[in-house]
Queue: 4 jobs
Job 1
Amino acid sequence: MNRVIPIAVDSPAAHPSAGNDSVPHSAAQSLPHYMRAGTLQLAALPPLSLYVHLPWCLKKCPYCDFNSHEWRTGGAIPERAYLAALRADLDAALPLIWEDLGKAGMVSGHAYGKSIRTVKTCVGAEHCRFGTQLSMTMGVKLEKMLFGMWAPHKVKLAVSGCPRNCAEAGIKDVGVIGLDSGYELYVAGNGGIKTDVAQFFCKVETDDEVMEYSGAFLQLYREEGYYLERTVHYVNRVGLDYVKTRVVEDASNRKALFERLLYALQGYEDPWLERVRDDRKRREFRLIPVEALA
Ligand code: SF4
């Protein structure tokens, strides 16, 4: 049932100075009607709901103003049963959550896979007075181009807007450093347990060249690297000169590698949305009654 709640009435009676030019209007009176204190009107009561939360507090803190109650039945708190029910709820709801996220344009990332990771950038010429190149823009371009790329191992990239190199491009699988005249590319770095400094690969002038050379290098690694072999170990095995011969010095081979990369990436589908659209895959998230397993 819709009901108007008359919290306050905005009338000359409520503001005795209104209509009287001899009395200066207050700042509050010059505000739009809906911003004045005491004028809020709700068209309807919000729906009644009950929020039940099971915190894991050892005791109630004196400043806690939740309407909370201690477990006093004497038995142990049914943590296991609660967690099992919560997990079942989440499992069942996951595809629905993914569907909502997908509609909002939010897709699954690659936090753990043998795949491209979020491209790190400094703030670049977009925001830094030292910047010579738009590193954030370049990083976004690279990440969008490589999104969904699987590889023998994880692949990390960074783009710095100038040689001060705040994005630490010198310890990435592909590092891009902006210069006045274009970009320097570095490959086969690693910032993990054992740090390996990336090796200078080549100099290029344009954003498109950054994408082509980086993409061709990564495709060569995808085609020739062993499973679980990082770029540093791949390049150490085959030699940097060999990689340069295939990518930097052989323009037609570079373009072919780059085209194969782009072709492979066309088939990428977000794993969340795959499970939303494909009923057979969605079944992975249906609960199986325990009796059915007996
Ligand atoms: S690398 Fe250069 S452009 Fe980027 S934040 Fe550092 S000083 Fe600025």
Job 2
Amino acid sequence: MAADDDVEGAAALRAAMVCELRDQGVIRSEAVVAAFTAVPRHLFTPGESLEVAYGVDNVPVVKRGDNGLALSSVSAPHLQALMLEAAEITAGMRVCEIGSGGYNAALVAELVGDGGHVTTVDIDPDIVGRARAFLDEAGYHRVNVVLADAEGGVPDAAPFDRIIVTAGSWDIPPAWIDQLADDGRIVVPLRLRGTTRWIAFDRDRSGSLTSRDYGLCSFVPFQGIGSHSERNVTVDDGVVLRLDDENLKVDPEALRRALHLPRIERWSGATFDMPDEQMLFLLTNEPDMALLHAEQKIVDRRLLARPVLTGVPALIGGDGFAYRAARTNGATGGYESGVYAHGPSAEDLAARYVELLCQWAANHHRRGAASIRYVPRSVAPPPPASGVIPKRHGTVVVTWP
Ligand SMILES: C[S@@+](CC[C@H](N)C(=O)[O-])C[C@H]1O[C@@H](n2cnc3c(N)ncnc32)[C@H](O)[C@@H]1O
């Protein structure tokens, strides 16, 4: 039987998906339960098995670029649920989804009901065609599907009570803020110093945005006029620094020499968990941080330790660098954070890093500790500081109250 025809099997897996998301505390409201229960996700993932369609963390890729990287995918139910709960969409709202696929727009259509209005916009004609066809097949004829570069928003359908962005964005274009109602909310995956957080922002009358909630996520990149590439600095074969900040000066040759010097290690005595929260703290409290990545062969040669495989915040000095380490803490059964440092200034860099690890553990060791603001160009810019991240159209300000 084709996946599309197994209506009962699909309904059972859909119910199990909703149960799992509820048990995880990801779905919290009855409205979101009802939306996820109503929309047949498998109709938006043709060619995939029902098990793949309804897996809470599954992200079926729809299109890849020439480099093999995903350009479009159907986002994971887990992430869609988190973002929809953060959006708090209610009946009658006007909502714009940026980045289409059809499924998430159908969920939003369930949330806004017959009195509301949903627009979904995508830059890719193939994706727009698929979304329109799938939405029609599933009965969501009223969803407005638009082909455009969403850098300009969708002025014809504005204003919106909610905007949900489903592609990884480096900045927040003025059109999104302009097209948001005065007390509207935008949920956007925003890249901050190389890592992306979905952030639910409330707009105030000046056009500034203030976060209510955020979480780590990963999305296909925003394309078109608003796309933004990171700077990749090769330190050695298989070792790269990813820099999201144009002002950070790096001497790759000096760092390469440091890499081949013996490392020192220093331990903080502080707990290590919630790596995503700790990472945001490190990246936004020290302007000389970048993400250090390396390949397995570098770890196998014991030049660098395992955290570099997925990217780790590294404090960059003129002639050396330091990065976060972790080891088991026999006394607590958990982990302790520490630092590996290389180069002539290793001792200083390690001390600065350990100080940050201790600050985070003592004062900010919890989920959602940061407060994030976006100040558009039209509003007076905040003075430079370590948590102040300049963007093209405004400034992100991350503070740790
Ligand atoms: C993760 S997919 C969207 C998933 C979808 N919301 C769902 O229901 O699962 C991200 C989409 O963003 C689109 N996109 C990227 N840059 C864009 C831009 N500048 N304007 C509009 N869409 C864009 C891509 O073509 C891609 O289809």
Job 3
Amino acid sequence: MLSGRRFRVEFTDEQAEFAERIGSVSRAVWNTGLAQRREYRRRGAWINYREQAHELVDAKEEHAWLKEVPGHCLQQALIDLDEACRRHGTFRVRWRSTRRWAPSFRFPEGSKMAVEKLNRRTWRVKLPKLGYVKFRGSRSLDGETIRSATVSRDGGRWFVSFLVDDLMTTPEEHLVPGSAVGVDRGVAVAVATSDGDLIDRQFVTAGERRRTVVLQRKLSHTAKNSKNRTKIKAALAKLRTAERHRREDFCAQTAHRLAHANAAVVYEDLKTKQMTRRAKPVEDPDHPGHFLPNGAGSKSGLNRSILGKGWYRFEQSLTSVARYTGTRVVKVPAAFTSQRCSVCRHVDPKSRESQAVFRCIHCLRPAEHADVNAAKNILAAGLAVTACREAATPASVAVTSTQEPAGNREELLLQPV
Ligand SMILES: [Zn+2]
């Protein structure tokens, strides 16, 4: 199975400088290639990877600086550009700017890369033109075949990511056959399961939050391009990186726990991207050019909470670990899961007393945590889907008839905790 392995690189000063240069040359190749593609599209024509690669060979004769860096990385940039344009459309693909794009480049020929262990902590790999690159061997690469290596910078640190084939296969059957769990992802609690577990973690401490506010205030008083500004920005980036790492850890650990214990994991198909759109401005009909309150503040707060829990990251972690455990991952439409009673199936928004409490107004059973109730509904929906998969109509068709009224779930999420 193909998998990724990421290691912290320990470059020498010259290597770091050279890596920075490879990054900027690949960026130039990407931007030139994109400009050319857009130019062709405006005239109603196309240019593909093959032609661009030929032109790159010609350009190398003219510009010596293109020849200094590994040619494979530049070809790879053009291949990536080709794929991005096919997938998203030539005019939607972004330019790579020095400010918004962190340097990253790929060496495609993994089979020719020699990786060796130097001591308990350090490994090294020989990369074209960069020479021997040391990295921290935080896990063993023994018995794995390397397909490619990507070098990238994240803040001030360099990393190498290997695409490896670990020669494992997905098991035919899960270790605990027949087990299944429903998962509700929420804002107040990150993950609630149908077994009644509430899994959550704070990613930022109170002290870090205070420090962020102080730093942001300081930042607003600094002069542009000043040394002080750079320093404060670096400190802010460090705080954000710590938060991101904790979130990634949380998602990976939760996914690991759920996938190892269950042969099927069901979760709601939430359109995270649509849900986190910005609130539309509402123009005041009496005063053209003026705008009415549109709830943008609370909407952006909700967006932050959704993105802050790493819902999408969790999906990715789950599908990734499911390949190793043989767990079936099932997505079900998010219709009425938060308003339906998991015992008598009665649907009423009034049953949801608050963000946390679900008290059925129909069957008068004891109150339950609202997210656990939702997780039970999700599990039931998932089991129904897997049971009649053969007869199932396409998901998009099935969704529309029972779709939860627009805005409902958001309104519920917005209620005070
Ligand atoms: Zn009920």
Job 4
Amino acid sequence: MELEIREIGDENLRFFISGVTPAFVNSIRRTILQEVPVMAVDEVEFAENDSVMGDEVIAHRLGQMPLTTPDGYLLPSECDCREGRCSNCSVDLTLEAEGPTVARAGDMDSSDPDVAPVQPDAPVVRLEEGQKVKLTAIVRLGFGEDHANWQPAIASYKYLPVIEIDQDAREDWDECVDACPKNILEVEDGELVVTDREECTLCKACAEACPDAIEVSGDPSKFIFKIESTGCMSPERILKKSIEVLKDKCDQFSEGVERL
Ligand SMILES: [Zn+2]
């Protein structure tokens, strides 16, 4: 197996992985989407809401807000408090605002400053003169498989594109260059070249326009894997956590097998 990092940033991670099967990379993708726990608003208690937006609409909006997720919190199901309401397994975000104003995510006070909205400018509710809102949003760890609110990232992969060009097949490449919707084909010194193979979506439009000269396929043993974090944590941490989850499952499985 070979791994090569192609891009690494605060929210995006892109790498090549080769020598593995589609089932293997798909298990990582699915684990990221469904089984890496992150913090999200789980419940909202309203003390006051005179705005034109209903409690449910505001609660739904808060639930979808990505929050920074530090290490150390317990899942409500694993906490001794059994209610998901102590400081080991929950965080309170409180909002108190009076119109005229637009209350934003960043206006909420967190009981743990390490758990905060990723986008503080995101509007929560618009309040007109005399309208008030007072609420407590209860944040807990959860899983993407239970609700998309807890999905830490978008994870995807594709086969590494293989674009074979017969340079002797033609002299005029304009038709082929124009066919590519990603604009990654160019002519250099009379030859057709691919400027950025990773951008190829395997749509095969170029091969359809120039079947005499171009063949496009995906290499089923090499993948481009991409993780786009919601901002809840870094994409490397999401990837590492997904691998921990998979490892734990394998350990449990092998313990079960030992007992046979
Ligand atoms: Zn607790």
